[in-house]
């Protein structure tokens, strides 16, 4: 069996490094996505069930902050119920819109 040259071994190690880096990046993206989902679930839970001062202030804060954060129309549509003035959101919920 012929021995690999140093260049061949370095190329093989570089390929392994790239593969491992891609795997690490995928794990980091998955962890980041999981954190965002859990944080979003907490915010939604507080909006629906929270009785404390922070939970009561949360809708107003979201109405101030979300429009500047959301850039795509399809994303804004996801939060129509939160972005509408209080009366509009309540009427849409009651009418089933």
Describe the structure using short key phrases.
2 domains, 97 residues, 5 helices, disordered C terminus, mainly alpha
Structure write-up:
The protein has 97 residues and is mostly helical. It has 2 domains: 1-49; 51-97, no CATH class. The protein is built from 5 helices and no strands. The protein has helices spanning 6-49, 53-69, 73-78, 80-83, 86-95. Helix 1 packs across helix 2 (53-69). It is elongated, with a radius of gyration of 24 Å. The termini are far apart. Residues 89-95 have low confidence and may be disordered.
What topology does this entry show?
Elements: H1 6-49, H2 53-69, H3 73-78, H4 80-83, H5 86-95
Short description:
This protein is mostly helical and 97 residues long. The chain is built from five helices and no strands.
What letter string, H or E per element, gives the SSE order?
Answer: HHHHH
Q: Which stretches of 5+ consecutive residues score pLDDT under 50?
A: 89-95
Specify Rg, calculated over alpha carbons. Answer: 24 Å
The domain tally reads 2
Strand content: under 5%
Give the distance, in angstroms, between the N- and C-terminal Cα atoms: 72 Å
Largest sheet: none
Number of strands: 0
Shape: elongated
**Mean pLDDT rating:** 89
List the total number of helices. 5
């Amino acid at each position: 069996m012929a021995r690999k040259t140093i260049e061949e071994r370095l190329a093989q190690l570089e390929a392994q490094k790239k593969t491992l880096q891609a795997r690490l990046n995928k794990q980091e993206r998955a962890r980041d996505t999981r954190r965002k989902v859990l944080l979003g679930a907490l915010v939604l839970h507080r909006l629906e069930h929270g009785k404390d001062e922070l939970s009561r202030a949360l809708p107003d804060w979201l109405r101030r902050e979300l429009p500047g954060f959301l850039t795509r129309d399809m994303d804004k549509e996801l939060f129509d119920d939160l972005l509408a003035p209080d009366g509009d959101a309540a009427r849409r919920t009651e009418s089933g819109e």
